[in-house]
Amino acid sequence: MNIGNLTSKERLFCTYYCISRNGGEAAAKSGYIFPEKSAARLLKKKEVKEEIERSDREKRAAQKDIISGYYRLAFGCFADAVSLLFKDEVTEEEIKKMDLYNISDIKRKKGGEIEIKFFDRLKALEHLQQISSQEEKDPAESLFRAIEKGAAALRDDENG
Q1: Which CATH topology does 1-60 take?
Q2: How many CB atoms lie within 10 A of CB 17?
């Protein structure tokens, strides 16, 4: 992969293409004069394909991290946070060993009282459901876009 060979305009095209999966739209937003023809040419270029694949891999990795975080919020354990409430003194080493991922806020009030607020598990579950429903839609959208691109390419060939 050699991203260094891409112009700034080509990199911009790759960015827009990864978002929309529409070559003509991505080329138009990137400033190409003849977007459909430019998109067809760019999508055949090895460096452009490699940059799109690299971006897709990064997007999938980021999505996995997001999903993992929501799972921890939705299904994570509160035991360490609860044990924190009942301890009079806690060392820094003890805190480092605790799983406090589900905590959104900790306050020590006057008199030593501790107030702990947790992230909303229901909201985390709702986000997981939204992500899941979007993943189910993607294959159909991808097929539709592929058909659209094929039809556009046929029109371009006919108008040639």
Answers
A1: Arc Repressor Mutant, subunit A (1.10.10)
A2: 24
Residue 3 sits at φ, ψ, to 5 deg, of -65, -20
The pLDDT tens digits of the residues spanning 72-96 come to 999 988 898 888 888 878 888 988 9
pLDDT digits (tens, 9 = 90+) for 98-148: 999 999 998 888 877 888 899 999 999 999 898 888 765 555 565 556 666
**103 close to 76: Cβ distance less than 8 angstroms:** no
Domain residue limits, the chain: 1-60, 76-137
Give the integer Cα–Cα distance in Å for 121 and 71.
Answer: 9
- For the whole model, what pTM was predicted? 0.58
pLDDT of residue 81: 87
- For residue 54, what are its two tokens? 């690299």
Helix 8-20 with 23-30: angle, nearest 10 deg: 140
Residue labelled with tokens 């799109």? 52
